[in-house]
Design goal:
Blueprint: H1 2-24, H2 27-56, H3 58-81, H4 84-118
Amino acid sequence: MMARGIIRRMLVQFHREWTALRESESGEAWITTANALLDRYSHQLYDIVCDTEAIVGEDLAVEIRCLSADMIKTTNILIMIGCEEECRERGDTLAKEALRHAERCLVKLAGRREREEETR
């Protein structure tokens, strides 16, 4: 349960930071900051999922790895072409996806707690 909670908090935090970045930066500063944000979270998420896969389950681990890979791809696109608007849109999609995964973590946590209480 704790591992899912950590992943959920990371996903929610990524969404918050992306939203704040979207509202506060533009131009070259935005590209640099977005690149750093995507890079940092992609690696953190990948690392935590690798460390906790046995606990969180294969389905969630695969989903988070795919999200991490998408973040890395977006980061690479930012570096290669510096195309601000396309990358904003892709980052927005990733942030929404992160929030969707966070909500799924919460639902699975609640379900697990209910099952544990029923067995007591």
